[in-house]
Design brief:
globular; single chain; about 0% strand; Na+/H+ antiporter like fold; 12 helices; mainly alpha
Length: about 325
């Protein structure tokens, strides 16, 4: 029961944000056109601040198991390479290809990973998850921009120069780059500026989920089930199993194994919706991935935690 409550408490705020946005539109207080404009604001103004803040707040005094870091990063890159080979052969529509690839590999690790690890492993879990988030999230975001740019448009060949330009000018990349400069040069913002930046960054995910709820069309889910069901089965069941098996073979500790497991077992990243909507992807499908994976994760995370507890991994 405790494991179930952990999963519910981690997921419930996301469902509330989504439901609130849906209710606001249905009540007539806002329409979908307003939500679409707000989505552009979130993508171009709020997400860059979130990325900046994530890099700016990095701690300097942490050390990590390099094998764990290498396994996390290389497993993501290997999975992306595999998906880039397979998904285009199975999915005809270019805007859906990038969205499906992103949904399978990109998890809401930053918002689910830390509280789950803290609840199960205490301060050790929280510290390790925080450190891994600082490494994995930039990999998620940079590669997501590249993949979505690759599948932007009508499916023709991508101009490498245009791809590089679009990646370098992407709001998330720019925000992270500026944050990295501040971190590397040890530039400290005045407290009167640092506070608002942190608060704006904290608003990003609730606002993005609020917009997602306001633009959600439940009637369209049925037509996308042929993409959603296999993708989410792979994401929430098969990939967590494979990475857990690999982590066990490599001899990781229980907390290390759980943190790398979280990279694959948590729901689709909230940012994937805003990015797809603003970068020529199928925003509707991306939003459905976020909503349905978030709801399903209440059950799947509970089952995984129950299994790990039963076999002594927790």
């Amino acid at each position: 029961m405790e494991s179930f409550l952990i999963a519910v408490n981690a997921v419930m705020p996301f469902l509330i944000y989504i439901s609130f946005g849906y209710g606001v539109v249905k009540s007539g207080l806002a329409d979908e056109a307003f939500m679409n404009k707000l989505n552009k604001v979130v993508f171009r103004a709020f997400f860059p601040l979130l990325m900046f803040n994530n890099m700016y707040q990095l701690k300097r005094d942490f050390s990590l198991n390099l094998t764990l870091v290498a396994t996390a990063v290389l497993s993501v890159l290997f999975l992306q390479a595999l998906l880039l080979l397979v998904v285009p052969r199975l999915v005809k529509e270019n805007p859906r290809r990038g969205v499906i690839i992103q949904a399978i590999y990109r998890s809401n690790f930053v918002l689910f990973g830390i509280p789950l690890a803290a609840n199960l492993f205490g301060d050790d879990g929280s510290a390790l998850a925080s450190m891994m988030v600082a490494i994995v999230i930039p990999v998620y975001n940079v590669t997501a921009v590249i993949i979505l740019e690759m599948f932007r448009g009508d499916g023709g060949k991508t101009n490498p120069l245009v791809l590089v330009r679009n990646v370098c000018t992407n709001p998330l990349i720019l925000g992270a780059a500026v944050g990295l400069v501040f971190f590397a040069l040890r530039i400290k913002l005045p407290s009167s500026v640092e506070g608002p930046v942190s608060q704006f960054a904290g608003m990003t995910t609730p606002l993005a989920l609020f917009v997602l709820g306001g633009t959600l069309h439940f009637s369209a889910i049925r037509g996308n089930l042929k993409y959603i069901v296999p993708s989410m089965t792979l994401k929430l069941a098969l990939l967590p199993l494979l990475i857990t098996a690999l982590a066990t073979v490599l001899g990781f500790s229980n907390v290390e194994r759980f943190v790398i497991f979280e990279m694959y077992a948590t729901p689709v990243a909230t940012a994937s919706y805003s990015m797809a909507q603003n970068m020529g992807g199928d925003g509707e499908l991306a939003g459905q991935f976020v909503v349905l994976s978030t709801a399903a994760s209440v059950v799947t995370i509970f089952l995984w935690v129950y299994l790990f507890t039963s076999i002594g991994f927790i």
